[in-house]
Amino acid sequence: MDKAFLQNQEKILKESEEKLEHQLKSFAKEDTGIKHNWKSTFPEFDGSEIGDSKLEVAQDEVEEYMNRLSVEHTLEIKLKNVKLALERLGENKYGKCAKCNKEIALDRLKVCPEAKFCLNCEKK
Fold this sequence. Notes:
Layout: H1 3-25, E1 28-30, E2 38-40, H2 52-90, H3 106-111, H4 119-123
Antiparallel strand pairs: 1-2
């Protein structure tokens, strides 16, 4: 694989890693006990309401937290795949399918730099 292509892919992956981490840090904290895991923080609204308004705010907090969990999960998976691709770059394994060990098409890597499977293995 061309050295310039690999350098460009590394740059793209690092930018993606930085962006994903920034997004996650806006509402979650990295779990130091589990690799590639993040924990959503529970939103805290004003709390100055009383009576029925307080119940509505509590309901909004729970709803917001549930929304955060799904977004966290999606971003977490993307970030994990980006980090694994960077590891493969460092180990000179980037661009090889993790299942069949054949070369992943350059067009696929351009579209999805974190791809770990060739199209044939991805379809299976």
